Amino acid sequence: MSDSVVANRYAVALFELGQEKLALDQLLTEVQAVQTVFNESQDLTTFLSSPSISIEKKKALLKDAFKDVSKELLNTLFIMTERHRETEIPAMTRAFISMTNESRGVAEADVYSVRALSDEEKQSLEKVFAEKLGKNSLYITNIVDPSLIGGVKLKIGNRIYDGTISRKLERIERELVSANK
């Protein structure tokens, strides 16, 4: 069974539980916190994936690390640990966040720019691209990339909208090279 399928199943179960208990907002916030912890702590992932550490110790660490999360999320983490699916927790969090955003008509966008974007620039991009994609809103993560020279590049799901100067220069170069042949 594929890892992403396993993570998806846990995410779906947690999502449905959140809908049933009308606690999707709270769960989303908690899952984002869990995702951040796993992204920032390689030691946690190493500890949880170690076969020499007992399940009880792993569960105790999870309970201590995530003592403020709901019992639904904590129980999901426990079940994943008991079934030796600890390494799937980060994938489960990504799948849960994606499902929640999809249910709300929200898309996540990585916006690459030469400098940090102002709030007005983010709102302008959000308005234009949310409308273009038929979404209610965009959750924008701004990534500063000085190699772009200018302009912005958006990555939304598997779509890329590239309006950077470096990309335009590449196109001009290709046209010049092909014209000289």
From TrEMBL:
It comes from the Bacteria. InterPro entries: ATP_synth_OSCP/delta_N_sf (IPR026015), ATPase_OSCP/d_CS (IPR020781), ATPase_OSCP/dsu (IPR000711). Keywords: ATP synthesis, Cell membrane, CF(1), Hydrogen ion transport, Ion transport, Membrane, Transport. Its main location: membrane. PROSITE patterns: ATPASE_DELTA. The keyword Transport applies. It is found in: Cell membrane; Membrane. It is a peripheral membrane protein. Gene3D superfamilies: N-terminal domain of the delta subunit of the F1F0-ATP synthase (1.10.520.20). F(1)F(0) ATP synthase produces ATP from ADP in the presence of a proton or sodium gradient. F-type ATPases consist of two structural domains, F(1) containing the extramembraneous catalytic core and F(0) containing the membrane proton channel, linked together by a central stalk and a peripheral stalk. During catalysis, ATP synthesis in the catalytic domain of F(1) is coupled via a rotary mechanism of the central stalk subunits to proton translocation. PANTHER family: ATP SYNTHASE DELTA CHAIN. Belongs to the ATPase delta chain family. This is ATP synthase subunit delta. It comes from Salinibacillus aidingensis.
